[in-house]
Amino acid sequence: MKVSHLADAMLAGVWVQQEITERVLQVVKTPRRWVPSLVRRTILAFPDHRPLRSVLCQFLMTDDSLRSRACDDEFEVLAYSGNDEFDNHRFDDSARRPVRWQTFGQLAEFLDLEISELSWLADLRGLQRTAPDGPLNHYHRRWQLRRRAVPRLIESPKPRLKSVQRRILQCCLSRLPLHSAAHGFRKGRSVSTFLQHHAGQSCVVRLDLHDFFGFLSPIRLLRLLMMFGYSESVARTITAICSTTTPEHTIERMPQNFVDRRQATTLQRLRSRHFPQGAPTSPAIANLIAWKLDQRLTGLATTFGATYSRYADDLLFSGDEDFRRRAQWFTTCVAAVAMDEGFEVQHRKTRIMTRSVRQQACGLVLNHRPTVSRREYDVLKATLHNAVRFGPESQNRSRHSGFRQHLLGRINYVRQWNPARAVRLMALFDSIRW
Questions:
Q1: Do 154 and 243 lie in a common domain?
Q2: Edge-to-edge, what's the strand order for the sheet holding 203-208?
Q3: 368, 387, 421: which is the final residue of a domain?
């Protein structure tokens, strides 16, 4: 019995019962009356996502009905040779549909790489785990200190790998559909769109996800790519190119300025496959993997009469007086959903903000409309005033190499939210003698 042929047909396209049945019918010779019931059993066994090929083959080999059917003399299964396309109703703009590669070789050809070079960049054999710093290592790594937290490891891909990651981002990852609640790292979305529905509300609830990138599992990206129609080998390769394992000598260099219960967990994740902070693909992958989290939190917010949006690891909810009365219980529900989806809420950063206090998110005040806080405005105004009186060097306490551009950037940030205040600040800036 050619179970592998059946598995190939089932996995060759979208994971929908009718379309799976049509593909299986292409490889099974008469009689074929048993095919729909086999597909139904398979969908019941794997309802949420396409399984890995090895897992599906194991399931088919242990299916009693299929095994008895295979004993018939007339039973014959052909190799699948179809070329199903993506589930195109998911993509509104045909120009933005992801490029689809059927095989490892097609992916290598598209990226203008030899097969051996693609294997090396993807680190399919896990050699990067022991690679010393130098030309054989694909990443530059540095530890970034944080206050009251475990140091963050920034892993930046070297030019060759970064160019490959950018092509995959442009031609694949950035073209996959995202949830409407996601606003970070997304074309056409910004902090402004993230906050616009939360201004002037009776109650604003802000939560923060702990170690957002660290909780993203590569197996989830693998399953997601397979769900969108990529073959298992291509999905594995894309996942491998976008992920890495941290060498032990880098982990040993971690600064010991802060130790807490999460340090061991963080180091364990770094030793296994993970998405590096510093790779151009990681933000887009984070949005893709968080799709189900966004879907569930949107539904939860609707149940409570609230609005939800997410910017990277910042979760923001807002609603009326009824929502305010139930806000404490609501935060518990959000934490439970996040945990169920493989994330963790930083409870010490959770804020329930009513109209009587300053409702703040992303450094902006939301009580009436998104605007820069009075304190931030006053500090910038004082800096400019003192720069006029005592010279700009006296105010460059952080030793910015381009202090003039730094001040202009801060003024333009204020202009985005409050043009009238920016005019007053610009008048002071023009009075500075450089």
A1: yes
A2: 306-311, 314-319, 203-208, 351-354
A3: 368
Phi and psi at 310, nearest 5°, equal -135, 135
Task: Map residue 139 onto helix, strand or coil.
Answer: strand
What are the percentages of helix, strand and coil residues in the chain, rounded to 5?
Answer: 50, 10, 40
Which neighbouring-strand residues pair with 155?
A: 141
Across 68-77, 290-299, 393-402, least confident range: 68-77
Residue at 87 is within a domain: no
Distance CA 192, CA 363 (A): 12
Distance from the Cα of residue 427 to its chain's centroid: 42
pLDDT at position 1 is 52
Residues 221 and 191 in one domain: no
Cis? peptide before 255, omega within 30° of 0 = no
Residue 62 tokens, joined: 């242990």
Q: What is the mean pLDDT of residues 183-189?
A: 92
Phi, psi of 143 (to 5 degrees): -90, 135
- What domain range is 413 assigned to? 373-430
The answer to the question of residue 154 being in a domain is yes
pLDDT tens per residue across span 126-144: 888 888 888 889 999 999 9
Do 393 and 255 share a structural domain? no
306-311 and 314-319 beta bridge pairing: antiparallel
Average pLDDT along the chain: 89
Percentage of residues in the chain having pLDDT higher than 90 = 61
- At 352-367, the pLDDT tens digits run 999 999 999 998 999 9
The model's pTM is: 0.79
Q: Which residue has the tokens 């204020």?
A: 414
Which residues is 152 bridged to in the sheet? 144
| 3-state secondary structure (DSSP) of residue 405 | helix
